[in-house]
Amino acid sequence: MGPRNVPILLCRRLLVLGLTALATSGQGAEPAAKFEVADIHPSPRSLNSDTNDLSGGMMRSGRYNLRRATMLDLVRIAYGVDAKTILGGPNWLALDRFDIRAKAPAGTNSAAVKPMLRTLLTERFGLLVHNDNQPLSMWALTAGKHPLMKKSDGSGESGCHSSGSGDVVDVKCRNMTMAAFASGMGGLDGAWYYLTDNRVADQTGLEGAWDFDLRYSARWKTTIAGAEIVSLFDAIDKLGLKLDASMIPTPVVLVDGVNRTPTPNSPDVDKLLPPAPTEFEAVDVKPTDPDYHDSDVQLQEGGRLKARGMTLKSLIAGAWGITEEMIVDAPKFLDSDRWDIVAKAPDVMAADGDADFDSLLMMVRNLLADRFRLSVHFEDRPVQAYTMTAPKPRMKKADPASRTGCKEGPPTLVKIDPRGINPVLGRYLTCTNVSMAYLAQQLQFLASGYIHSDVLDATGLEGGWDFTLSFSKLAQLRGNGALAQAAGSASDPNGALSVQDAMEKQLGLKLELRKRPASVLVIDRIEEKPSDN
In terms of CB atoms within 10 Å, which end of the chain has fewer, N or C? Predict the structure, then answer.
């Protein structure tokens, strides 16, 4: 055996010794905290952007529910870390979504959920992680020689409080350490538009607490004629501090391995985890006062649903997670008659002062079926829907190992955001390792309001792609929805750019309205007047 094999043998022996030591140290240790039973399955996809993200995560009456959680979400929650500090792992970590419902042992409090979730991820997904320390890109808060702030005397409440007209944000910070200021900066009014979702690290070296004021322009109001524009970065500079992009050594969680498919659920899972209630225990339905011209829906404490001025079409769309445009065979009164509804969920749903949103949607479906005799079904019908082609693609081929997903904001930390230079282009998406099929499926959420159903991918482009896309919010286009509904719409004279035009000019992709089969919700039956309360 040649000498080049010695290191391999040594590594193997060290690995065996390490595993033996771990097994020995585990003897007599407390057993891992775990749920009594858990159901895991892929999340059904919603067609409504409002119900397409993570929900749940609270322990209620011994039950724990998470819906539409990516593996990135699960690791973040289980280990109590920021998603940006989770590195490694397969590219689908932020792509696939799972629903989890689990039952905890009697007497379990919310603090015990994290270790139980860690055990669940290890046992059912084979998740392997370890802690490390690596440099991450983030904003670094540093101080000059003479900071223009006042040393606090330590009295009074510690914190930062915002006020302002909406055009300008005024922030008063009192008794604040620099560490607390840095960690909470992203929560200041309007700060997200400058920092996006990037963290701020305190690198000032300043000890103790300080009193200071900040005044900066609200990013969404930077187009006000004659107004002096003071960015958050300018405001920080006036304090004798600086905010710059930097690579900061940071504790991270490295994902060493995880399975895309969890192990099967117990065959007795439905017996051990009875489904949540699907009907309200008390409902009051009445016509909306004709003098009330608004509409709103509120989910109140105690599992109470309060809707006012709502049409039946809007209630159906919300309950099934679709847009109103995808409801067909609807009688005219679905758009005209408006209703007020007050409904109370069963007490078991109201534990901890919050009811499960997805279960409430199911209750609304049953309410409509019971009180309005609603009957529906999904089917494919020919409708006007977008098809995406690639006549002149202008995108960069992605590293297949990079994480799949799209985020709002530039690809790197920048002080001069393109949205600030040209605010009429109010949306800026950065997408990495995105397939054309994924882009087509997600466009109605990424470009909210422009597109009302899945886009058909007819590009013929394989693999993943990296790109940025800058376009206007729908409200920034003159005529609002009119331009957005027209394929290949021309740019607005005010400089606004529809998502259709932006994709063609910036990515070489074309969106065309064509008549083709798409899934719609068909109204089979509905009565104009509800049954009595």
Answer: N
Beta-ladder partners of 522:
328, 377
**pTM more than 0.85:** no
**For residues 46, 50, 54 and 60, what is the CA-based torsion angle, rounded to 10 degrees?**
-100
Rounded CA-CA distance 215/224 in Å is 16
CA 16, 3, 19: angle at the middle one, nearest 5? 5
Residue 508's alpha-carbon distances to 230, 390, 501, in angstroms, are: 36, 6, 10
Assign residue 166 a region (left: φ > 0; alpha: ψ between -120 and 50; beta: otherwise): left
Sheet holding 427-434, edge to edge: 396-397, 465-471, 427-434, 405-408
Is the Cβ–Cβ distance between 394 and 508 less than 8 Å?
yes
Contact by Cβ (8 Å): 84, 405:
no
Asked if 53 contacts 322 with a C-beta cutoff of 8 angstroms, the reply is no
Helices 312-320 and 357-372 cross at an angle (nearest 10°) of 140
Which amino acid is located at 472 in the chain?
S
Nearest to 130 by CA among 45, 3, 254: 254
Is residue 518 within 8 A of residue 380, CB to CB? The reply is: yes
Residue closest to 182 by CA, chosen among 193, 169, 195: 195
In sequence order, which ranges of 137-198 are alpha helices (DSSP H)?
A: 178-184, 192-195
* Token code pair at residue 261: 């498919």
* Full pLDDT tens readout for the chain, 533 residues: 333 333 333 333 333 333 333 333 344 455 678 999 999 999 887 655 555 678 888 787 788 888 899 999 999 999 999 999 999 999 999 999 999 999 998 888 878 899 999 999 999 999 999 999 999 999 999 999 889 999 998 888 899 998 876 778 999 999 999 999 999 999 998 888 888 888 999 999 999 999 999 999 886 554 444 556 788 999 999 999 999 999 999 999 999 999 999 999 999 888 888 877 888 999 999 999 999 999 998 876 667 889 999 999 999 998 988 888 889 999 999 999 999 999 988 876 654 444 567 778 889 999 999 999 999 999 999 988 899 999 999 999 999 999 999 998 888 888 887 777 777 888 899 999 999 999 998 998 888 888 888 899 999 999 999 999 999 988 878 544 444 344 344 455 567 899 999 999 999 999 999 999 988 999 999 999 999 98
Q: Is 92 in a helix, a strand, or coil?
A: coil
Residue ranges of domains in the chain: 30-127+258-271, 136-251, 276-372, 384-518
